[in-house]
## 1
Amino acid sequence: MTSKRTPLDLVRAEPGPAHTATFDGAQIAVLPGQTVAAALWSAGVTAWRTTRGTGEPRGVFCGIGVCFDCLVTVNGRPNQRACLVRAEPGDDIRTQHGTGHDDAAEGEGP
Amino acid sequence: MKRGAHEGSARTLAVIGAGPAGLAAALAAAVRGSRVTLIDAGAQAGGQFYRQPAEELGARRPQALHHQWRTWERLRDGLAAQIATGRITHLTDHHVWCVERLDETSGFLVHTLHGPAQEEPSVVRADAVILATGAYEKVLPFPGWTLPGVITAGGAQAMLKGGLVLQGRTAVVAGTGPLLLPVAAGLAAAGAEVAALVESAGAKSVARHARTLSAHPDKLVEGAGYVAELMRRRVRLKARHTVVEAHGDGTLEAVTIAALDREGRVAPGSEQVVRCDTLAVGHGLLPHTDLAETLGCRLEGPAVAVDDEQRTDIHAVWAAGEATGVGGAALSLAEGHIAGCSAAARLAGRPRAWEAAAKSRARSREFIASLDAVFAPRAHWAEQVTDDTVVCRCEEVPASAIREAVGELGATDARTVKLLTRAGMGWCQGRVCGPAVAGLAGCELQPTKRPFARPVPLGVLARAGEDLPDE
Ligand SMILES: Cc1cc2nc3c(=O)[nH]c(=O)nc-3n(C[C@H](O)[C@H](O)[C@H](O)COP(=O)(O)OP(=O)(O)OC[C@H]3O[C@@H](n4cnc5c(N)ncnc54)[C@H](O)[C@@H]3O)c2cc1C
Ligand code: FES
């Protein structure tokens, strides 16, 4: 039925076997070739950053690397644009708080 | 035409951007004997219009998400053939952060970053450069536009075409411009429930330009095709409507849409709430001009200024496609072709011929001019921007701060507003908030001088002078 149609069906995709990464410690399945943002969307996650000032949640906005709203910490490296960076097997993806540097994570930014 | 014997000594051309414009430019130049390095940030050629799913996703019918697939096949196969002959070198995943002009005779150094974290530097030397860097989406703010779930219309399209993903189940597509139609149709075809397509332009303004528009039946047929598809899927089409607010607690849950009166103001009492978890919104596109600006190219309004041959006013620098003004894939192809022909001719001192492309360019430009008039962002959008609406998403600057900078502190231009409020000083360097700040401050959108087109690690900058060109 229509509610089950997916983008993968539409283009008759036959992706390679999914691999596993983690988001904030929980396992998520990732299709090979997907960006971190695409992998998180597939896992039902739409926000993975909180802002430096008011701590508001953010996720993808422009989808093409221009807005920097989708910043995320991957394998301990903060400020990666989730919409550009590919998700690799075993990646440790974490919500980025503020600047992504622990010292500034709480309260005021620099 | 070919010049096998001189292959090794052919002058080199760097084409930056592998969208329709860059591909057409690279192919035209390569066929005419230039050696081309095609440099693009993406993992595959295609740019925005022909964005391809990652190969590993194994899409057997990617054309289900595309228009003009035949043209893409021609470009793709042409590129493969030229790569095989060695005339084109295609550098994927290379982000150009600066194009450095040496002097009239020694050409250019194109500085790029590659690798997964975009930190590995490399340099490409070239005798001439074609900038085909495309455009990005303009979104004017409204209360709630920073909620996760609100994305740009083109961004939704890019995530769908490239990653084969949807953000949620129920989407509203809103704003203004011809891009909204393929986005709504694409989301619906891929399984999203599209609750409404909300376009602020009205049927009347289309009628006013009916004459020019009807001189382009192919484009109208394409548009009508999308509309028919949306109607078949029972998508509500709301012309002369706008989204006034996005609601949700931490993530998008609904939007309020409202009708617009003749002046573009919200008609009181017309508001209705539409439940959705995705709002794909866009108010047009803005040319990517930062590389052109650092080279010192003259701009005209927000776009790189070019002559009939797509030459900028800087020697040996051409620009093509949406960097020179937003006009769609067909116009980008024509401009790219002309730029490639012109560059190859000038590099090799050969006669030039591109009448067919010049005709197609002229026709497309005429069409685009009337589209622009139909789809201007609605007047009075700023009235819906409440004081606490965040305008600069990076620095979290609310509208009140911008209004205060203008009303109380006397700022009269965007630069002063920026200095007083920090709007535009964050990660995106004002690319996203620029039009909104200008609109709220009542001044023109000025090109901002950004030192680099991409964030550059300090270590790379420190070593930039020492890097030797790859070739
Ligand atoms: C997000 C988005 C989605 C769109 N989707 C559609 C659509 O589905 N249908 C439609 O009709 N129109 C769409 N458009 C409109 C589209 O811009 C044009 O119609 C067309 O793609 C323009 O062609 P172009 O070659 O000028 O630029 P583009 O296709 O945008 O190509 C520019 C290329 O340059 C590269 N680039 C830019 N800067 C750099 C740099 N510094 N270093 C390295 N590479 C760089 C980009 O990665 C890109 O591949 C979309 C626009 C946007 C912004
Ligand atoms: S969503 Fe804009 S940079 Fe990633």
Note: Residues 1-8 of chain B have pLDDT under 50 and may be disordered.
## 2
Amino acid sequence: MTSELDKSMGDRARTSAYHLDFWPGIVGYVVVLGAVTVLGDLDGTSPWRFLWALLPVLPALWVIRAVVRHVRRIDDYQRGLLLRGLAVGFAAAMIASITIGFLDVAGLDVPLAGWIVYGVGMVGWALAAAVTNR
Amino acid sequence: MKNSLKALREARGWTQGALADRLDVSRQTVNALEKGRYDPSLPLAFRIAHLFERPIEAIFEPDTVPAP
């Protein structure tokens, strides 16, 4: 009998399908981000800079599509784990957003507020996933 | 909920991965079932019962028996 830590064929198929969905989005996001940084002239005055700034949303939507398709592929138990992790990340992002909002109202200008909210949400998701997958 | 899934699987010489493929779930899910960390959905419980050719109540045992 082989190790009980073996991956089932179904696991491998689902993982492969997820990678095929997910990585083009991530690579696209990095490429678009690079293009926006180099060519977007976000600090400039061109009206096109707003369109450049919105461009990374397209590959990000692709990544979201990959995650949604993955959620549909996995079984009930794994879906519960994943959605719990996402819920923790969402709650952390909301708390960060509210905190930064109140600090702003109080007169404290928090730089890169959007990125802080994004980072807190992602870290919350990652930590929750690590804890629930133990 | 307690269950005899591990004993039934081992009696057939299957790995967790092999059982996972037969049930169309992940190996992680089989592991969670065997450790009692996850109670299966009704459709999955029926698939398990069908696979091992036993009634559900012969495989799964509730922690507390409901009053009649």
Note: The helical segments of chain A are 9-39, 48-54, 57-73, 76-105, 113-132.
